[in-house]
Amino acid sequence: MSTISQWQLRAAFAARLSQMYGQEVPAYTTLVDVSREVNEDVLRARGADAERLGSIGRVTAERHGAIRVGTPRELAQVARVFGALGMHPVGFYDLREAAASAVPVVSTAFRPVDGEELARNPFRVFTSLLTPADPRFFTPDLHARLETFLAARVLFPPELLALADRAATERELPRQDAERFLRLGVQAFELSAEPVDRAWYQELERVSAVAADIGGVRSTHINHLTPRVLDIDELYRRMTDRGIEMIDTIQGPPAWKGPDVLLRQTSFKALAEPRTMRLADGSVETGALRVRFGEVEARGIALTREGRALYDGLLGRIDEQALRMSAEARGDIARGVWEQHMPDSEEELAARGLAYFTYVPAEGRPRDGGRPPADLTELVRQGWVRAEPIVYEDFLPRSAAGIFQSNLSGEGTRDNDQEGTAYDAAWLSGAIGLDVLDPYALYARQQTDSLAQVARALDLTDALG
């Protein structure tokens, strides 16, 4: 019997999830179609340069999803499902601190971590966990009732989890079992037709629309799916021209003449979807909830800790200068700050240690021959070595919170007189039962491994090894 490997399972799962979500949220299909059109146009206009941060095949197939769960037990089960697909928890994001509105969640992202696996299919799922123990959002009474509600639900059937564990252990599944796993996995993230308890949902919604979306229903669902695009500004224009309402801004770095770094994101506005509501007297009526949307992203170069510190500092400068200004004026200010302070070439980013690159010996040698220099910058400048940017595979808490916030039905409530409950990556690792990996360490390892190969190829082990 033929088997399906983990990366093939991952690619199939991402494709089926995308198909399912397009049926549930038709505007998402439009977003995918427009993204493909923009990518094809950019490829025609820029040629090979358009594929500097990933082949067009990878970019076109690329998706990230977002889901929300309520308890550490549910999060650990999510980790088992994605572990079957060769996806690991990477990064810790505290959206409680990143948002002005009430967003009581902490998050991680499940994704492949090996370079070859990322090239085959880089599917990621940004996964948020509700924080009902945080007294800034939940009273002791609501906390207790919410915990009771969450403890009683079952998000993932035992058969799905058993198949997931088998795929994670064996790194493949027989074709028939793979089909069953994929079917059960996609079903687990479909929007449920079960009636929503309107009074309970509304009570949570007064605290936070995100809390209601997580804890106000007896299932989970895809909150959004995200294709990747090579020109997000053009995508934004084309979606708007088609009459689809977009959020006010593109989150992340500004559009400018220099290298794309980190991540830029935007979305269309969450759409009102019909949902069945159960009233206090037991009767059922049709209502509407506005929680799901379609996001799109443009990925840039991964920054080092020093580069990230520069990025965060520049955002602070922009905030100070753009206070109470329009989104358009803020964009102009952001470009000005970027052009003044951010290196405008990959070469300078690399030389200043602000971004991650892999290094490979260049084909042929410099015309003057001789011995290669022992300095990495000179190796690149003289043509001995080629630097290739490492794609940023992760997320930005401020941008994620901005997307969430732009699609909320209300601001919610937050009592800042209370001290927030502490969560960090170590706590999340314990909740999942797996180490939450440090994204900086993953990028640094890619870069270091490539330098070791260069050192061996050019006999520079003492200098670069």
Can you summarize this structure?
This protein has a 7-stranded mixed beta sheet, with helices on both faces. The protein has a 3-stranded mixed beta sheet with strand order 7-10-11. The model has no long low-confidence stretch (mean pLDDT 90). The protein has helices at 6-24, 26-46, 56-61, 72-83, 95-98, 115-120, 140-151, 158-170, 175-188, 198-207, 209-215, 232-241, 305-321, 327-341, 346-351, 376-381, 397-406, 425-432, 439-457, 461-464; strands spanning 3-5, 63-69, 88-94, 105-111, 124-130, 172-174, 196-197, 224-227, 263-267, 273-278, 284-289, 293-299, 357-361, 385-389.
Strand content: 15-25%
Q: What is the terminal-to-terminal distance?
A: 45 Å
CATH class of the largest domain: Alpha Beta
Shape, principal axes of CA atoms: globular
- Beta strand count: 14
Would you write up a description of this structure?
The model has no long low-confidence stretch (mean pLDDT 90). This protein has 3 domains: 3-302 and 393-434, 2,3-Dihydroxybiphenyl 1,2-Dioxygenase, domain 1; 304-345; 356-389 and 437-465, no CATH class. Helix 1 crosses helix 2 and helix 13 crosses helix 14 (327-341). The protein contains 20 helices and 14 strands. The chain has helices at 6-24, 26-46, 56-61, 72-83, 95-98, 115-120, 140-151, 158-170, 175-188, 198-207, 209-215, 232-241, 305-321, 327-341, 346-351, 376-381, 397-406, 425-432, 439-457, 461-464; strands at residues 3-5, 63-69, 88-94, 105-111, 124-130, 172-174, 196-197, 224-227, 263-267, 273-278, 284-289, 293-299, 357-361, 385-389. A hairpin with a 5-residue loop joins strand 10 and strand 11. The two termini are 45 Å apart. It is globular. With 465 residues, the protein is an alpha+beta fold. A 7-stranded mixed sheet has the order 3-4-5-2-8-12-9, sandwiched between helices. The protein has a 3-stranded mixed sheet with strand order 7-10-11. It has a two-stranded antiparallel sheet with strand order 1-6. Helix content is 47%, strand content 16%. InterPro entries: HGLS, YdcJ_bac-like. Its EC number is 1.13.11.93.
